[in-house]
Amino acid sequence: MIRRSIVVHGNVQGVGFRYSARREAERLGVAGWVRNRPDGAVEAEIEGDEASVTELIDWFTAGPAGAIVSGTDVAEREPLGEHAFRIIGWPVAG
C-alpha cells in the first residue's frame, strides 16, 4: 500500500477533472480524495497498490478530455488506510 499527493497545473478546472478522476480511481480500486484549489490547480491524495496508484498518476498527467495539463507535482505520503475515493471542497484559509 502506497500513498501519493499530486497537484495538477494547467487548464484543469471546469472540465470535469474531479469527477473523471473519481471514476478512474474507482475503476482502479484506489482510495483518497480530489479537490479544486483556489489557485486553479487540482490537488489529490491517492492510495492503493503500487501499480494502481502509478496508473492513476499517469492518468492525472494527461487528464480527461478538455483538460490541458501543463505540469504535475507528486510527493510520497504515509498511507492512511482509506477505503473510498471522494471529491472534497476547497481548503479553508487561515
TrEMBL record:
Top enzyme class: hydrolase
Similarity field: Belongs to the acylphosphatase family.
Lineage summary: Bacteria, Bacillati, Actinomycetota, Actinomycetes, Micrococcales
Active site: R18, N36
EC number: 3.6.1.7
Residue ranges annotated for the Acylphosphatase-like domain, each copy included: 3-89
Keyword terms, alphabetized: Hydrolase
Keyword match Hydrolase: yes
The name this protein goes by in its record: Acylphosphatase
Catalytic activity: an acyl phosphate + H2O = a carboxylate + phosphate + H(+)
Organism domain of life: Bacteria
